[in-house]
Specification:
- With 521 residues, this protein is an alpha/beta fold.
- The protein has 2 domains: 3-214, YjeF N-terminal domain (Rossmann fold, 3-Layer(aba) Sandwich), CATH 3.40.50.10260; 218-510, UDP-N-acetylmuramoyl-L-alanine:D-glutamate ligase (3-Layer(aba) Sandwich), CATH 3.40.1190.
- The chain contains 18 helices and 22 strands.
- A 9-stranded mixed β-sheet has the order 15-12-11-16-17-18-19-20-21, sandwiched between helices. An 8-stranded mixed β-sheet has the order 4-3-2-5-6-7-9-22, sandwiched between helices.
- Helix 11 links the parallel strand 16 (319-322) and strand 17.
- Helix 3 (58-72) runs parallel beside helix 4 (87-95), helix 12 packs parallel to helix 13 (380-391) and helix 17 (470-486) crosses helix 18.
- The protein is elongated.
- The structure holds ligand NPW and potassium ion (K).
- Ligand NPW is lined by residues 14, 18, 26-27, 30, 55-60, 62, 127-136, 139, 154-155, 180, 204.
Length: 521
């Protein structure tokens, strides 16, 4: 299981190792890992042109020492220093035949631009975990010169807050980040996570405490997946009640059903909202027709809008998912209130999120009396609306807070509402009311298209129905959903995802997609 720690946790873990002999051992371990990565990436060190962006702290020290070792192996190394430099690092570089530009006089922009333009690789050692606030102007100017495809960030892309992922002003964009000891939390949190490229973890021998943020890898997900055994039956594997689809939005139900079926639900009851047919007891809905045409294995019950009694009468379930393709309004609020009154786990998405916000606004304790969890799955816009309705947060402030401290903001929302919050996005986060948090490391930017969230809701609902605890159901669902997206033909459409899940699950269970140690995308 990959883990991420806060800067304070890293500092505390480093302290005993820094206090003991031999001096500088941690930095030399870090440098060895960094040089090994660079050599592997370049293929040939001798004759390669390397530019080091060297800040004044130990992060600059790492980059300068790496530069020295690469220069000793025949690379041409130029270091650009916007201020004072790490004394031992710069001395080592000069002794190995490297060149140091700056700090007095400061390297001219034309010189920096020319060197960086010719470089095979740029090592960003401007700032690491000791950085505070936005980059200072001289650092920011150099950061702007770093070419994203040829830049490797040392520990953290400079300008990205290592704790929160905040990017205040200019920040290096790297094609990869080599980080030391553990993943820094900010590497997994947007917007900083967009600056890292793949992250390579170098073990420097830290003994670390419980992580502040976790991620699942393929092996974790394979171990958590509910797999039927000899004693399984369609009921024992879990019955999901999926409330999705209306006459206005029937397609969302089809997508959610696809996700649910490929999530392994043993039995799927689909409740669609429609108008009542001509004869009493003859309800009819477009969503029901579409679902049955696409997925004949689903058992579909059309109900009149807001008819909670008919919804519950569809049969017993182990978990509910509600929202895809529903238009927010009083009928959905009634259905949701009915589900909250029953004590099964519930996934709340899309058209059921505003109604949940209203229920929470009217009674902040509405989720506290339940023993079964409620998992909400908003994207950023829906999160801002949900927290406005439920908690009275100003949506503009919420947007700012999400950019400043995404994890902290989601933790506050989960704690205040009593819901487990899955915030969808480039690095989906899942946080339970007690603050336990997972970041999802799979996926592709192509997932940002209509309908992909409906598939995710069905998938997570299936996992909940099979008995996977809510936070893990969210994290496992997001992982599988992301892996499916990585395998999609491009451009991806949401309806491709359910059909890609069987291959993903098969590979996971066969152990074929295990990532390289320490590597996350
Ligand atoms: N400790 C260890 O054992 C190991 C540590 N390792 C490495 O050390 C790194 C941490 O090193 P660090 O603590 O020296 O911090 P780091 O980020 O290099 O520089 C901080 C200095 O920069 C300045 N500054 C601050 N904010 C700024 C801003 N916005 N814009 C511009 N400048 C700013 C400020 O200096 P000031 O000018 O204020 O005196 C501050 O003192 C870590 O990321 C890893 O790479 C590895 O070798 C493994 C072993
Ligand atoms: K850096």
């Amino acid at each position: 299981m990959p883990n991420a720690h806060t800067v304070d946790q890293v500092r505390a873990a480093e302290a005993p190792l820094l206090a003991g002999p031999p001096p500088g051992i941690l930095m030399q371990r870090a440098v060895s890992g960094l040089v090994a990565y660079v050599a592997r990436r370049l293929g040939r060190v001798h004759g390669a042109r390397i530019v080091v962006l060297a800040g004044g702290g130990d992060n600059g020290g790492d980059a300068l020492w790496a530069g020295a070792r690469l220069a000793a192996r025949g690379a041409r190394v130029d270091a650009l220093a916007p201020g004072r430099t790490h004394p031992e690092g710069s001395a080592a570089l000069l002794a190995a035949g490297g060149r140091l530009h700056g700090p007095d006089p400061a390297p001219a922009d034309e010189v920096a631009r020319a060197l960086v333009g010719e470089a095979d690789l740029v090592l960003d050692g401007l700032l690491g975990i000791g950085g505070r606030g936005g980059l200072r102007p001289a650092h920011a100017r150099l950061a702007a010169f770093a070419p994203p495809r040829r830049t490797v960030a040392v520990d953290v892309p400079s300008g990205v807050d290592a704790d929160t992922g905040e990017v205040a002003g200019e920040a290096v964009r790297a094609s990869a980040t080599v980080t030391f000891g553990t993943h820094k939390r900010g590497l997994w949190l947007m917007p900083g996570a967009a600056h890292t490229g793949p992250v390579e973890l170098v073990d420097i021998g830290l003994v670390l405490p419980e992580p502040d943020l976790r991620a699942l890898d393929d092996a974790d997900v394979a171990a958590l997946l509910p797999v039927p055994g000899a004693a399984s039956s369609k009921y024992r594997r879990g019955v999901l009640g999926l409330v999705a689809g209306s006459d206005a939005y029937p397609g969302a139900a089809v997508l959610a059903v696809g996700g649910a079926l490929r999530g392994g639900a043993g039995y799927l009851r689909v409740i669609t909202e429609g108008r009542l047919g001509a004869a009493p007891g003859d309800p009819h809905s477009r969503a029901a027709d579409l679902v049955l045409r696409a997925h004949p294995e689903a058992v579909v019950t059309p109900i009149a809008p807001g008819d909670g009694t008919a919804m519950l009468a569809a049969g017993r379930v182990q978990a509910w998912a509600i929202g895809p393709g529903l238009a927010p309004g009083p009928p959905v609020r009634d259905l949701l209130a009915t589900l909250l009154g029953a004590d099964e786990p519930v996934v709340v998405d899309a058209g059921a999120l505003d109604p949940l916000g209203e229920l929470l606004g009217a009674d902040p304790a509405v989720l506290r009396g339940r023993s079964a969890p409620v998992l909400v799955t908003p994207h950023e816009g829906e999160f801002a609306r949900l927290t406005r309705l439920a908690l009275g947060w100003d949506p503009r402030t919420t947007d700012t807070e999400l950019a400043r401290d995404r994890l902290g903001t989601v933790r506050r929302a989960a704690a205040a509402t009593g819901a487990t919050v899955l915030l969808k996005g480039a690095r989906t986060l899942v946080v339970d009311p007690a603050g336990a948090a997972w970041a999802n490391l799979t996926g592709s930017a192509w997932l940002g298209s209509a309908g992909t969230g409906d598939v995710l809701t069905g998938l997570i609902g299936s996992l909940l129905a099979a008995g996977v605890p809510a936070t893990l159901a969210g994290a496992v669902g997001a992982h599988l959903h992301g892996r499916a997206a990585e395998r999609a033909a491009l451009p991806l459409a949401a309806s491709d995802l359910p059909d890609l899940l069987p291959r993903v699950v098969t590979e996971l269970l066969d152990g074929e997609t295990a990532p390289k140690p320490g590597h996350c995308r």
